[in-house]
Design brief:
- By secondary structure, this protein is an alpha/beta fold.
- It folds into 2 domains: 78 residues, no CATH class; 83 residues, no CATH class.
- The chain is built from 6 helices and 12 strands.
- Helix 3 packs parallel to helix 5.
- The two termini are 32 Å apart.
């Protein structure tokens, strides 16, 4: 959908799975701990993992050609299979690795105004969080939003100067985020 929209507006687009050309590399988890019906279980043979790196040179090559780069999970892992296998990874974490590799501002779009002090109250937006206060605001996050904060932390730890979590439901969300909307981390 996004690729078609960008192309219809005249953009040249490179759209790919992270596994293509080793764009996003990771490590497969040999097992996954889950809670099912109140019981803790270990799933083996799953294809989930963690991101280790991004192939920044290949991404830069596409950007230098004037292409907008769209990447999605899965990543590629060589940890369990020397020929490589696709693994499911978190898209925000993958994007954090790309952002710090490119030394760029990192914008995460979500379905809330940003990080909210009270998750059910859109007016409780926390507009700014300095790097050293990130652990203090984690208790404001619920569910999958914690993964977004993990991505923020990875980016900040790797010298990305500006990270933003902002509302993807609005018109021109990236422009608005870069203009001050959402939660800014630095």
């Amino acid at each position: 959908m996004l690729e078609e929209l960008l192309r219809s507006r005249g953009f040249s687009v490179f759209s790919s799975r992270g596994s293509y050309g080793d764009l996003i590399q990771g490590k497969r988890h040999p097992s996954l701990k889950v809670v099912k019906n109140g019981r803790r279980m270990v799933l083996r043979g799953n294809y989930s993992g963690e991101v280790l790196s991004a192939n920044i040179e290949l991404i830069r090559a596409h950007l230098k050609q004037g292409e907008t780069v769209l990447l999605s999970p899965p990543a590629i892992s060589y940890s369990e299979n020397p020929e490589g296998e696709e693994i499911n990874v978190d898209g925000d974490i993958s994007a954090a690795h790309v952002a710090y590799g490119l030394s760029s501002t990192f914008v995460i779009l979500t379905d809330t105004a940003g990080l909210l002090k009270y998750p059910s109250d859109e007016s409780s937006l926390i507009p700014y969080v300095p790097r050293d206060r990130l652990p203090d605001v984690r208790n404001s996050a619920q569910g999958r939003f914690n993964q977004k904060l993990d991505a923020v932390e990875i980016a900040l730890e790797n010298c990305v100067g500006n990270v933003i979590i902002s509302d993807g439901r609005i018109v021109n969300p990236i422009t608005q985020a870069l203009s001050g909307r959402g939660t800014h981390f630095s």
